[in-house]
Design brief:
Chain A: This is ABC transporter ATP-binding protein. Chain A: GO terms for molecular function: ATP binding; ATP hydrolysis activity. The complex is a heterodimer of chains A (255) and B (309). Chain A is built from 8 helices and 9 strands. In chain A, helix 6 links the parallel strand 6 and strand 7. The longest helix of chain A has 18 residues. Chain A is globular, with a radius of gyration of 18 Å. With 255 residues, chain A is an alpha/beta fold. With 309 residues, chain B is mainly α. Chain B folds into 3 domains: 43 residues, no CATH class; 31 residues; 206 residues, MetI-like fold. Chain B contains 13 helices and no strands. At the A-B interface, helix 3, helix 5 and helix 6 of A face helix 2, helix 3, helix 10 and helix 11 of B.
C-alpha cells in the first residue's frame, strides 16, 4: 500500500480507489465499483443517505476493512481519522487525549507535549488543556478529537460524519474552523456527511452516493474559491448547487 | 480545582444545554482567557449528582432512623418483653458498656482483628485472582468460553457444602478461613472486571487499531482504565462478601486464633446476651466500614471522570 519516499514526493494523489467493491460473506454488496481519487489540496465530500456504505469507504481507506475487489491505494503513512463520535478517553484531560496518538507512536514526552500544544492552539482550545471531556460541550469535544488527529500531521484526513451530532450553529462554526485548517495545513480531505449544504460548503468536489449497493451516482465540482466566505451559503449560486446535489441524491435514492 | 467545584454545583441540565451554544461561541472568541473557563465548564457539564452539598440533608435521615431503632429497642426490651425474658434483648447502653469492659472487650477486639486479617487477606487474593482471571478471558474468546462457566459455578455452589472439604484439605485453621473468604468474594471481581474490559466502545478500540497498538497497549491504555469503575464496583461487593466469608469461616474453623465469629458462637452457647449483641454489632460495623472504604476509594480514583455511585 505505502510507497517509498521518492514516489511520495512525485505523486499528489493521496487516495486512489479503482473499481472498489466490498461484498460481505452473507452476499450483501456494500460497495460496488467505486472510483474515487483525492489529491493534495482537494477536499472531497461523499454525501449519501444513511446505510449507503459511505462510512465503509473510509474504513477501507484507513485499513480498518479491506475491499473484496478492486484496488485501493493510500500514498501516505500520515492518515488522520476523525470518528463520528469524539471517542475521547474520559479519564484523560484534553491535553492527554490530544497526546494519545503520539504516545502510541512512542514519541518522547517533550515531542508529544509540543505537538499536542500546537494542535490544541490550532483548534482554539487553548486554556482548556486540563479539562476533562465531561466538562466540555459536544463541539469542544469534537475539537479535541480533531486536535488529536492533527498531531499526526496528516497528509490525508478522513472524516466520518464528525459534526453529525452537533447543533446547526456549532456545526457551522466547526465547518469554518475546518476550512481554515484545510487552507493552512494543505492536507487532502475525504469527508463523509449526510448534509448537502455542509458538503457543498466544505468541499472542492462533492460525490453523491446511493445505497444498496453503495455506488457513486454523480460528481460535482464546487467552483467557489478557498478560503470560503461564510456568507457564500446565502448566495444564489450556492443554493443552486445544493439543489443540484440534492436532486442527484434523491434520484439515486430512487425516491 | 475550581472546575471540580463548579462541576458539583448543582445547575440544572436544561439551563446547561441552553447555555451550551453561548459557551461554544465564548470558547471560540475568548479561548485564551482563563476567566472564561468557569462559566463554560458549568454550562457544558451534564449534572447528575444530587445531594452532594453535604450537611444535614445528607446524614440527617439515616441518623433519625438510628435513633428510632434504638428507641424501639428500649421499648421492646423494657415494655413488650416480660421481665423474665428481658435477657433476650439487653438494653442498648448495657451492650454499649461491653466495649469498655476490660474483661471482655480486649478479647473481642483481638477477635475482630483476626477476622479482619482473614477478610482482607482473602479479599486481596480474590481481587488479584479475579482480575487475572477476567483479563485472561478477555484475551481470547476460547479462554472465555472455557473458563466462564466455572466462574458461574463458583457463584452457584453453596459454599457451606464445601466447608467440610476445605477443612479436610486445608485444616481447621487460618488458611481454611481465608479460602472461604476468597471463594465467596471471587465471582463479583471476575464478572465485574470482565464486564468492564468488554464495555470499551468499538470506535475507541479502532482508534488504537489504526495506530497498530499491541494487545498489551490496548489493555493498559484503554481497556483497563475503562474497566476501573466496574472493577471498583466489584471490589466493593467483594469486600462485603469477604467479611461474610471470614465470619462464616470463623464458625467452622475455630482452631488457632479465634475470630469474631467464633466469639459470637461462644457467647450464644453461654447465653451471654450483652457480649453477643456487642460482637454482632462490631462485626456488622466492620462490614459497613470495609464496604464504605472501597466506595470511598473507588470515588477517589475514578470519581473525577465517572459518577461512581
Amino acid at each position: 500500500m505505502a510507497m517509498t519516499d521518492s514516489e511520495l514526493a512525485t505523486t499528489s494523489t493521496l487516495l486512489d480507489f479503482q473499481n472498489v467493491q466490498l461484498t460481505y460473506p452473507n452476499g450483501t454488496i456494500a460497495l460496488s465499483g467505486v472510483d474515487l481519487t483525492v489529491k493534495r489540496g482537494e477536499f472531497v465530500t461523499v454525501v449519501g443517505p444513511s446505510g449507503c456504505g459511505k462510512s465503509t469507504l473510509l474504513r477501507i481507506a484507513s485499513g480498518l476493512e479491506s475491499s473484496s475487489e478492486g484496488i485501493s491505494t493510500v500514498n501516505t503513512k500520515r492518515v488522520g481519522y476523525v470518528f463520528q463520535d469524539a471517542t475521547l478517553l474520559p479519564w484523560r484531560n484534553v491535553r492527554a487525549n490530544v497526546e494519545l496518538l503520539a504516545e502510541l507512536q512512542w514519541e518522547t514526552q517533550a515531542v508529544r507535549r509540543e505537538k499536542a500544544q500546537k494542535a490544541i492552539d490550532l483548534v482554539g482550545l487553548t486554556g482548556f488543556e486540563k479539562h476533562l471531556p465531561r466538562q466540555l460541550s459536544g463541539g469542544m469535544r469534537m475539537r479535541t478529537s480533531l486536535a488529536r488527529s492533527l498531531t499526526l500531521d496528516p497528509e490525508l484526513f478522513l472524516f466520518d460524519e464528525p459534526f453529525g451530532a452537533l447543533d446547526e450553529i456549532t456545526r457551522e462554526y466547526l465547518n469554518d474552523e475546518l476550512l481554515k485548517l484545510f487552507v493552512e495545513q494543505q492536507f487532502a480531505g475525504l469527508f463523509i456527511t449526510h448534509s448537502v449544504s455542509e458538503a457543498v460548503y466544505l468541499s472542492t468536489k462533492v460525490m453523491v452516493m446511493s445505497g444498496r449497493p453503495g455506488r457513486i451516482v454523480d460528481t460535482f465540482d464546487v467552483p467557489f474559491p478557498m478560503p470560503r466566505d461564510p456568507d457564500i451559503r446565502y448566495t444564489g449560486e450556492f443554493a443552486a448547487l445544493v439543489g443540484e446535489v440534492s436532486h442527484a441524491l434523491r434520484e439515486g435514492h430512487g425516491a | 480545582m475550581s472546575t471540580e467545584r463548579v462541576v458539583n454545583d448543582g445547575i440544572d441540565t436544561a439551563e446547561a444545554t441552553r447555555d451550551l451554544m453561548g459557551a461554544e461561541r465564548q470558547a471560540l472568541e475568548h479561548h485564551d482567557t482563563e476567566l472564561e473557563i468557569a462559566p463554560t465548564t458549568a454550562a457544558a457539564v451534564p449534572l447528575k449528582r444530587r445531594g452532594s452539598r453535604g450537611g444535614i440533608a445528607n446524614w440527617g435521615p439515616p441518623v433519625a432512623v438510628a435513633v428510632l431503632i434504638v428507641g424501639l429497642w428500649y421499648f421492646v426490651g423494657s415494655v413488650v418483653l416480660e421481665p423474665s425474658k428481658s435477657y433476650l434483648l439487653p438494653p442498648p447502653h448495657e451492650v454499649f458498656a461491653v466495649y469498655f469492659n476490660p474483661k471482655v472487650a480486649p478479647d473481642m477486639y483481638e477477635a475482630l482483628w483476626n477476622t479482619a486479617v482473614v477478610a482482607l487477606g482473602g479479599l486481596f487474593i480474590a481481587i488479584v485472582l479475579g482480575i487475572v482471571w477476567a483479563v485472561a478471558m478477555n484475551q481470547a474468546k476460547w479462554i472465555e468460553r472455557s473458563l466462564y462457566p466455572y466462574a458461574v459455578i463458583l457463584q452457584t455452589i453453596p459454599i457451606l457444602a464445601l466447608v467440610p472439604l476445605i477443612g479436610f484439605w486445608f485444616g481447621f485453621d487460618f488458611a481454611a478461613r481465608v479460602i472461604v473468604a476468597i471463594l465467596i468474594a471471587l465471582f463479583p471481581m471476575v464478572s465485574n472486571t470482565l464486564f468492564g474490559l468488554q464495555s470499551v466502545d468499538a470506535a475507541q478500540r479502532e482508534l488504537f487499531t489504526l495506530q497498530r497498538s499491541s494487545r498489551w497497549i490496548v489493555l493498559k491504555k484503554l481497556q483497563f482504565p475503562a474497566a476501573l469503575p466496574a472493577i471498583f464496583a466489584g471490589m466493593r461487593i467483594s469486600a462485603g462478601l469477604a467479611v461474610v466469608g471470614a465470619i462464616v469461616g470463623d464458625f467452622f474453623f475455630q482452631r488457632g486464633t479465634p475470630g469474631i465469629g467464633a466469639l459470637i458462637s461462644k457467647y450464644q452457647a453461654r447465653l451471654n446476651a450483652e457480649p453477643l449483641f456487642a460482637a454482632i454489632i462490631l462485626a456488622s460495623l466492620f462490614g459497613v466500614v470495609v464496604f464504605w472504604f472501597f466506595g470511598w476509594f473507588g470515588k477517589r480514583v475514578v470519581g473525577k471522570w465517572y459518577d461512581f455511585a
